[in-house]
Design a protein that fits this description.
Layout lengths: L1 H6 L5 H4 L6 H6 L1 H9 L12 H9 L2 H10 L14 H8 L2 H10 L14 H8 L2 H16 L3 H5 L8 H7 L3 H10 L14 H7 L3 H8 L14 H8 L2 H10 L17 H8 L2 H10 L14 H8 L2 H10 L13 H7 L3 H9 L17 H8 L2 H8 L16 H14 L27 H9 L21 H8 L2 H10 L14 H7 L3 H13 L4 H8 L8 H7 L3 H10 L20 H8 L2 H10 L14 H8 L2 H9 L17 H7 L3 H9 L23 H4 L3 H13 L4 H21 L1 H27 L22 H25 L6 H34 L4 H33 L12
Helix pairs in contact: 5-7, 6-8, 7-8, 7-9, 9-10, 9-12, 10-13, 12-13, 13-15, 14-15, 14-16, 15-17, 16-17, 16-18, 17-19, 18-20, 19-21, 20-21, 20-22, 22-23, 22-24, 23-25, 24-25, 24-26, 27-28, 28-29, 28-30, 30-31, 31-34, 33-34, 35-36, 35-37, 37-38, 37-39, 38-40, 39-40, 40-42, 42-47, 44-45, 44-46, ...
């Protein structure tokens, strides 16, 4: 056949690429083309794909395909169970010659869609490899030649068109070609409300953003109700920000939706410290410096809270009278003092425009000095007191001066160590009356609930007071396991059982989550005795913010007897389903099941017979890659990333907008993170979840992770992969360090006791050994006349070295032992100094002890066994070095593995 000969010639030439398909060939499939135009996006029944045809598509064997098509032209119309034609399959493999042949033989396949509503163009663009993207450009030209505009603008089930995928893959050339071919592509957001412009801004594709801005009605929105300027700010890209401000300056004032704290791009730039972007925004619109968010906070307050001095200077440069105060009277100095930003405090105190803030009071009458005193921050207190205009006599609304606040804060720290058996500490007297307009918990009641001391109430209304998190005294006592306190409180006010905190937890839920099974059973019985009370019944079946009730928590935490008791006393608990749809049955794709168990061989066999086997769990949008990462199956992750059929999953998001990288970072799995980051060509590091957060912000237990080497390695790898996120990563690390430091301050007594006990034990042991060695000298003492009692080896150099090293070891060990005695028990800074100082002394004592051991034996053995004496000296000297090497090996191994990208700041917490 003439058609086949032309299609499979060695070079398709101008007739098939530059001039598309010759007229005769187009006519032969005119009906198919017209039909495909009318049915783009529709799902039509097609014959099953021929196994030989499928094999040819996977291998890229164009000759075999031509031979089959010459015998039966309809062989090209077969599809797999997922609706993929041979052209789809070949696009995922990147076989350009095969695709050219198929398009020449059957142009209508350009408009064919699979079960995911993907045309071959979308499939090629989505795959993201260099070969696939080049193939996508070729398919675009074919679609233009055949006037298949619907095939170009087709959207997949995620609402993404070819332009979305081209930009997501980072291919500016293909993206510009698509925009030129079909400008309408720029107007369509995907199901996550991400526009092509937003994705281009996230990916830092400046030229693509510039071209999209030339289209007047191009969409600009993004996930989390952000716009393209939000994305430019997040990346700290002043070039994109400049282009957007030139065309759409109003974007700088557009806030994130009502379901979040208001965040304009200007606010985001100030909050994240993106000084270059702040400069650009203020240059084009200086009035942005006067913006207040919906919470009534000014930009200077935001800069103060985060310690961004350079941003504050830029604001004052363009807007000398920019608001420095929030609607609550909270100034930028208050914000800096409260968040321990000493550099910003010094900047304010040294600024002619802001130094008067030192005595301004908020709506509670507190100055910055009050807040610094409450936080016990000595550096900020000192800086404020050194200011010439400070007024230390200012009184807050509750009648406290900064001095009294400081005294109370110091006393509250010492109260933890008072004798618990002292009768006077068993009672507390309220320091205020409970009123309707003062719902805060009384400090004395809070201390009593925490310690479990018996309350002596003069005003029972105080029991209704709450903490900032909405917890009542009953919630707090349950968490601490104070049984008698809970019983006494419930006698006074049983309605506390129905109270709910900010997390949607009743006291019953709080007790179960704290693993206080006995108290949970007691509360359950108390509720049952008042079962006629509708509020009590509601409290029993109440679900928290995650949709979990008491039965969910009891089962999840393994409390079998409590779970059975809950079912018996309130059967309605068994009918509840939480927000994750737990408690119902569902079917998972086979690939997801294989991923859950880590069965690479099973997945390989599945793809061998079904190259487009389902990989997506429709319930939550997770793929088999998400599942493998969640379960920590490294081999399966490697398999997915190396598979041509599955590597596109690397950027797919679940129903919460999270990619596999989000999962890997949340699981703190450095090996999987490393595997994902190695796929630089396909991986999009800038993908945000539904809340607009990048992957590095995922960990919800970052404080615990931050103290591990795994978290440090994950952070360093992310920093190397995406240097533009350096500010965000270090802000996160700073927040975590503050949390760890605060936790260390709370446990300072235990930490000090543990360290001093261990250190003093080793120090005393070394001192004992070296002291005894001084009186059992090598070689013994002389009995000769005139030299009685003198060391026999006294004139030998090795013996003198023994005496010196033994003396130094004993003295340094004794020094450390006695420093442990005078250690201060409640001073974190002293503990850090003490740890650093004693560590150096102990290492010196260790080295001196091994030296004295080596020189002592050398003195005795050298005259008769010199080789043994030298060997003992070498081993003894190497022992401290080997000890250091073994102790630091995990960190050294990490340093070697990461080489230049190692950041010691990311593994040093406190």
């Amino acid at each position: 056949m003439a058609i086949g000969t032309a299609a499979t010639s060695n070079n398709l030439g101008e007739s098939s690429i530059d001039k598309c398909v010759p007229e005769a060939k187009v006519i032969s499939d005119t009906a198919g083309l017209e039909e495909s135009k009318d049915n783009v996006g529709s799902s039509t029944s097609s014959p099953a794909i021929d196994p030989e045809c499928l094999k040819a598509a996977i291998s890229g064997d164009a000759t075999s395909m031509h031979d089959m098509a010459s015998q039966d032209p309809n062989v090209l119309l077969g599809t797999t169970a997922a609706g993929n034609t041979c052209l789809h399959i070949s696009c995922t493999q990147g076989h350009e010659e095969f695709c050219k042949t198929v398009v020449v033989l059957k142009p209508s396949l350009l408009a064919a869609v699979n079960a995911h509503n993907e045309t071959p163009l979308i499939t090629a663009a989505k795959h993201g490899s260099r070969a696939s993207l080049s193939l996508a450009s070729l398919l675009l030209k074919f679609c233009q030649c055949h006037q298949l505009s619907e095939a170009i603008t087709q959207k997949d089930k995620k609402g993404c068109n070819a332009l979305h995928h081209a930009i997501r893959s980072g291919d500016s050339k293909l993206a510009l070609e698509l925009i030129k071919a079909e400008p309408a592509l720029s107007r369509v957001p995907n199901n996550d409300q991400e526009s092509p412009m937003f994705i281009a801004a996230v990916r830092n594709l400046t030229d693509v953003v510039g071209r999209l801005l030339e289209i007047s009605d191009a969409a600009h929105g993004g996930s989390g109700k952000q716009n393209a300027l939000h994305a430019a700010v997040r990346n700290g890209n002043p070039d994109i920000a400049k282009r957007i401000m030139e065309v759409h300056p109003w974007m700088a004032r557009e806030e994130i939706g009502d379901d979040k704290p208001a965040a304009t791009p200007m606010w985001r730039a100030v909050n994240d410290g993106k000084i270059d972007v702040v400069t650009v925004l203020l240059k084009y619109d200086p009035s942005l410096g006067y913006l207040m968010n919906r919470e009534g906070s000014s930009l200077l307050c935001t800069a103060g809270r985060n310690g961004h001095v350079a941003v504050a200077r830029e604001l004052l440069k363009h807007c000398p009278d920019t608001p420095y105060c929030s609607e609550t009277g909270w100034t930028c100095l208050h914000a800096a003092a409260y968040t321990d930003r000493i550099e910003f405090v010094r900047f304010v105190l040294g600024s002619e425009q802001l130094r008067h803030l030192v005595n301004i009071q908020d709506k509670y009458g507190r100055t910055a000095l009050h807040l610094a005193a409450e936080k016990l921050n000595s550096r900020i207190i000192s800086a404020l007191l050194l200011h010439q205009g400070i007024d230390v006599t200012l009184i807050s609304n509750n009648g406290q001066t900064a001095t009294s606040v400081l005294t109370a804060a110091l006393a509250s720290r010492k109260d933890k160590d008072k004798d618990k058996d002292d009768d006077i500490n068993a009672f507390w007297i309220p320091d205020s009356k409970a009123t309707a307009d003062s719902p805060g918990m009384d400090r004395g009641l809070l201390e009593a609930a925490t310690s479990g001391k018996k309350p002596a109430l003069h005003d029972p209304g105080l029991l209704l007071g709450r903490t900032v998190q909405g917890n009542t005294c009953l919630h707090i006592a349950l968490v601490h396991g104070h049984e008698e306190f809970c019983k006494d409180i419930l006698k006074l006010d049983p309605s506390l059982l129905c109270t709910v905190n900010a997390e949607g937890e009743t006291p019953l839920l709080a007790a179960i989550e704290s693993d206080n099974v006995y108290l949970a059973s007691f509360l359950l019985s108390h509720c049952c005795r008042r079962h006629d009370d509708l509020d009590m019944r509601e409290a029993m079946v109440r679900q928290d913010k995650q949709g979990c009730n008491a039965l969910h928590h009891a089962i999840r935490r393994g409390h079998r007897k409590l779970a059975l008791e809950l079912i018996e006393k309130e059967p309605a608990l068994t009918k509840a389903v939480n927000k994750h749809d737990e408690s119902r049955t569902s079917g998972d794709p086979l690939l997801c099941t294989a991923a859950y168990r880590g069965h690479v061989g099973v997945a390989t066999e599945l793809l061998k017979h079904c190259p487009d086997a389902p990989f997506l769990d429709e319930k939550d949008g997770t793929t088999c890659l998400h599942t493998a990462v969640e379960q920590g199956h490294i081999k399966f992750v490697e398999f997915v990333l190396q598979s041509k059929e599955l590597r596109k999953l690397i950027n797919m998001r679940d129903s919460d907008g999270e990619t596999a990288l989000h999962y890997a970072i949340r699981k703190c799995h450095p090996k999987i993170v490393s595997l994902l980051l190695q796929c630089k060509a396909q991986l999009d590091l800038t993908m945000l979840d539904s809340n607009g957060n990048p992957p590095i912000w995922v960990p919800d237990d970052a404080t615990d992770h931050a103290k591990t080497l795994n978290w440090g390695e994950v952070s360093m790898r992310m920093l190397k992969a995406d240097p533009q996120d350096k500010g965000e990563i270090y802000n996160l690390i700073k927040t975590i360090k503050d949390q760890v430091t605060e936790k260390a301050r709370k446990d300072i007594r235990t930490l000090t006791q543990t360290y001093t006990s261990n250190t003093s034990l080793v120090a005393i042991l070394l001192a004992t050994i070296t002291f005894a060695a001084a009186f059992t000298l090598p070689g013994g003492y002389s009995n000769d006349a005139g030299s009685e009692g003198l060391p026999i080896m006294g004139r030998k150099l090795a013996f003198q070295a023994f005496l010196i090293s033994d003396t130094l070891a004993m003295c340094t060990s004794l020094t450390v032992a006695f420093v442990c005695i005078i250690a201060r028990w409640e001073d974190l800074e002293f503990l850090l100094y003490y740890r650093s100082f004693t560590k150096k002394l102990m290492w010196f004592a260790y080295f001196a002890t091994t030296t004295s051991f080596a020189t002592g034996l050398y003195t005795v053995l050298a005259p008769h066994l010199p080789w043994l004496a030298i060997a003992i000296c070498v081993v003894s000297v190497l022992v401290p070095i080997l000890t250091k090497l073994i102790g630091e090996w995990p960190v050294l191994k990490l340093r070697i593995r990461l080489l230049g990208s190692f950041e010691s700041d990311l593994i040093d917490m406190v």
